[in-house]
Amino acid sequence: MEREDVKSIIESLLFVADGPLTLQRLQEVIDGTSKEEIRSVVTELQEELESHRRGVRLVEVAGGYQMRTAKVNADWVKKLLGGRPARMGRATLETLAIIAYRQPITKAEIEAIRGVDVDGVISTLLDRELIRAMARKDVPGRPFLYGTTQQFLELFNLKDLTHLPTLKEMEEITLPAVSEEEILLESTEER
Amino acid sequence: MSTRVQLEIFEGPLDLLLHLIKKNEVSITDIPIAAITEQYLATLEIMQSLNLDVAGEFLVMAATLVHIKSRMLLPPGHDNAEEDEEGNDPREELVRRLLEYQRFKDAAEQLGQREVLRRDVFTRSMIPTEDIPVPTLREVSVFELLTALRRVLERLPKDNVHEVTLDKITVREKMTFLLDTLRVRPNVLFESLFAEVRTRMEVVVTFLAMLELVKVRAIRIFQDGPEGPIQIEAAAGIDEIPNELAVDEEEQHGT
Fold this sequence. Notes:
The complex is a heterodimer of chains A (191) and B (255).
Chain A: H1 3-16, H2 23-29, H3 35-51, E1 56-61, E2 64-69, H4 74-81, E3 87-88, H5 90-102, H6 107-114, H7 119-127, E4 131-136, E5 144-148, H8 150-155, H9 180-190
Antiparallel strand pairs in A: 1-2, 4-5
Helix pairs in contact in A: 1-3, 5-7, 6-9
Chain B: H1 13-23, H2 33-49, H3 56-73, H4 92-112, E1 134-135, H5 142-155, H6 171-184, E2 187-189, H7 190-193, H8 200-215, E3 219-223, E4 230-234
Antiparallel strand pairs in B: 2-4, 3-4
């Protein structure tokens, strides 16, 4: 099979796919190709769409590859689709960020950081499948430990959790060096 | 009987403190406790006078602040030895919590600035979902609004303690008024809403009307930069909003 054929097939597959497609899945469908070949063709396709400033781009997200519209065209796409997008308030976004960086984490631990009750926010995030209960913590009451989902990665255009923006260090910290775990534990106990 | 305004204000005491610290342009690590405590309590008072639900957490923090303030007044070494064996700064634990929280606020902001699905980028067969929330940009915080409200209230003449309002101004009327304004103009300045307002009651009713409209997502409130003017604009689809919006069962009248 010619390289251009493989590229064409991959483009079609990515077009019809419901969610991000992994290299593995692409390779299974296009028999007789190696993972390396798929990877290099995908990268080429990605660069092509980018350099020609096409309206559709190929992004690596949530462990796979997905066709997404170019950001510059967002207003036109929204006009076509219509409808008012629901809004995610800052409380929800902050809670989501805490879970993303500190997972697995319990509700009490999140509340210790935010200083407010997060019951409502947690159930919203669970409903939207942006977080899930992963396990129970082995402490009295056996509370749920929450973590983020695939949908979370898709929503924020993240390849995986290691690609989360780096958590800022506060330059002005003049406090004795305390590990993050200790901070969490201390403020948890305080409650 | 007054209607209790239930707003989705999950922003908590740490948020309020960070807001005050920023507004006063002081360092998190060297908080002027007396001044910040005073402003914190003043904000709480406004929230209560607006009948907003002031969660217990706010009161716990108020107690913490007052406690820290009193400990700051003691000469070093006369501190409660159990709590503080090394004579540490009584603000230390609070500072640690504020810094930790600020880190996640920054992280949340960074997340919100990514290419968010259904806001910035779209996939094929993307159903126009109105129930999958996406982070919004540059939304003003409720504390920002309360600070602005305080400025408006302070500008009012002080002599009308026993004011008698002959006209009954309802939250609903003010909501309709604001929506009508936004039908002819793309946006209005927060301050200009209160330009003609003379009584404390009318200020409060106007403010509550604005919050109600935010709650039903009829308007959006933005601010250009941390100290910029607060602007109100119609949310997309303002024309779908009925002229007569119901404010709970009962209308809220001036006391």
